[in-house]
């Protein structure tokens, strides 16, 4: 299915207790960064966040990523997109590969649902099979306030879109070339998800900032990149979580 459609869904990957911690982590981040829209809690905050590193290192997630990019795994980036009720911004149609400094473009995205994700609150929508058509250019779109501020520079047949309807703990996996996006959240319910971008350690991060802010070696051989050190937990500075004693 992934080869043909460019996406696949795994159900009930993360247990409710950890999802509760993830939800609390999102609220903690928002309180810590009140000047940042909740759709923009991105990878620049990750390097000194033990819980975030603990979450993306979870073996249940790594086991899924390994199916797509192999046993030697690193994190490239991760990003909470938390759309508040009534005012959550859309993500216009795009392809992830149009943005990323990766060579080669061997990477897989795991989208972890923190909330129920439905058409009403702005779930992810994908165009099945669009990953087979190459990577199109991007253009600015200032007619609507959106998460990216850009959109794909080709016509998208929205009648072909499939809604990624997910429950908390579900994971949607997609190809870097698939055309996808999401509508605004005009409902009374928040829609939060965590994107996690895993690369094989043979993929080079070509951004000049070395090491990349969210580059962490997670499994297998370290490969071609330099990585951030795993942050040690400090109760005075960090979000408290269940197994924080392992991160001191």
From TrEMBL:
Keywords: Dioxygenase, Oxidoreductase. One of its GO terms (molecular function) is iron ion binding. The keyword Hydrolase does not apply. The keyword Oxidoreductase applies. PANTHER family: ECTOINE DIOXYGENASE, PHYTANOYL-COA DIOXYGENASE DOMAIN CONTAINING 1. This is Ectoine hydroxylase-related dioxygenase (Phytanoyl-CoA dioxygenase family). It comes from Kribbella sandramycini.
């Amino acid at each position: 299915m992934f080869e043909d459609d460019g996406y696949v869904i795994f159900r009930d990957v993360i247990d409710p207790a950890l999802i509760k911690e993830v939800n609390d982590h999102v609220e903690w981040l928002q309180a810590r960064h009140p000047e940042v829209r909740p759709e923009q809690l991105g990878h620049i905050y990750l390097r000194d966040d033990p819980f975030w590193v603990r979450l993306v290192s979870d073996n249940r997630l790594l086991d899924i990523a390994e199916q797509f990019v192999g046993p030697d795994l690193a994190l490239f980036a991760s990003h909470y997109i938390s759309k508040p009720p009534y005012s959550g911004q859309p993500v216009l149609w795009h392809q992830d590969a149009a943005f990323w400094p990766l060579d080669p473009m061997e990477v897989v995205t795991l989208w972890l649902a923190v909330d129920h994700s439905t058409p009403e609150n702005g779930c992810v929508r994908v165009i099945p099979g669009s990953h087979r058509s190459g990577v199109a250019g991007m253009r600015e779109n200032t007619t609507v306030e959106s998460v990216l501020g850009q959109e794909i520079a080709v016509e998208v047949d929205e009648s072909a879109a499939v809604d990624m309807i997910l429950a908390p703990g579900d994971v949607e996996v997609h190809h870097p070339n698939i055309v996808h996006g999401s509508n605004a959240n005009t409902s009374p319910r928040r829609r939060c998800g965590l994107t996690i971008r895993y690369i094989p350690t043979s993929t080079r991060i070509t951004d000049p900032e070395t090491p990349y802010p969210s580059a962490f070696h997670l499994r297998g051989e370290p490969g071609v990149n330099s990585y951030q050190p795993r942050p040690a937990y400090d109760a005075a500075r960090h979000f408290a979580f269940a197994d924080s004693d392992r991160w001191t």
